[in-house]
């Protein structure tokens, strides 16, 4: 058992999968220059790691360490992508209408630099206020906390838009978000 080879196998596969996970996220978000460049590094590391394991298949520990590096790489890649928080989220907030929170929440959100579009809808239990909020993904947790601090009963749905063009968001909100 060669510890040096086992460590190299682990770290090579760990780096490969971490880069692969980040490259996949960048590809999905449309980073057309960075993703292909990262894929060149990714495939080079992959071939190195795979050749290490294939040349030493007689020892099952090599395969286990390779798989362990893969699993740890996926986990770390996801954590890195969460920290980078690339892209935007679209948050829909549904509130009971005709409450003080209905009037307060849009103002609080706007005062904190968020663009808010509000409309009225009909739910099972009556009239509802629907708020649509576009925000950088990095602000997602802060947005949730802000909403919940004003209205605990808010129903919140979030998704990631792929394409954004025009509107209030593109210039004024980005500027306001930087200043808060």
From TrEMBL:
InterPro entries from the UniProt entry: DUF2179 (IPR019264), DUF5698 (IPR044035), UPF0316 (IPR022930)
Protein name, per record: UPF0316 protein I573_02013
DUF5698 domain location: 21-78
Keyword Phosphoprotein: no
HAMAP family cross-referenced by the UniProt entry: UPF0316 (MF_01515)
Species in which this protein is naturally found: Enterococcus sulfureus ATCC 49903
Primary location group: membrane
Intracellular or extracellular location(s): Cell membrane
Family: Belongs to the UPF0316 family.
Transmembrane residue ranges: 6-26, 33-54, 60-80
Bilayer disposition of the protein: Multi-pass membrane protein
Keywords, ordered alphabetically: Cell membrane, Membrane, Transmembrane, Transmembrane helix
One GO location term (cellular component): plasma membrane
Stretches assigned to the DUF2179 domain: 114-166
Higher taxonomy: Bacteria, Bacillati, Bacillota, Bacilli, Lactobacillales
């Amino acid at each position: 058992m060669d510890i040096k080879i086992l460590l190299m196998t682990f770290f090579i596969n760990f780096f490969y999968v971490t880069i692969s996970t980040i490259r996949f996220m960048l590809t999905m978000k449309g980073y057309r220059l960075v993703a292909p460049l990262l894929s060149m590094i990714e495939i080079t590391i992959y071939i190195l790691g795979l050749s290490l394991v294939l040349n030493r298949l007689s020892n099952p520990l090599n395969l286990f360490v390779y798989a362990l590096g893969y699993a740890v790489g996926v986990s770390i890649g996801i954590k890195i992508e969460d920290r980078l928080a690339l892209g935007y989220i679209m948050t829909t907030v549904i509130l009971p209408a005709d409450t003080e929170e209905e009037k307060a929440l849009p103002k609080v959100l706007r005062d904190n630099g968020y663009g808010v579009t509000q409309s009225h809808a009909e739910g099972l239990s009556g009239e509802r206020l629907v708020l649509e909020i576009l925000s950088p993904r990095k602000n997602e947790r802060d947005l949730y906390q802000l909403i919940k601090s004003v209205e605990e009963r808010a129903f919140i749905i979030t998704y990631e838009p792929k394409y954004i063009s025009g509107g209030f968001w593109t210039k004024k909100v980005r500027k306001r978000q930087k200043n808060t």
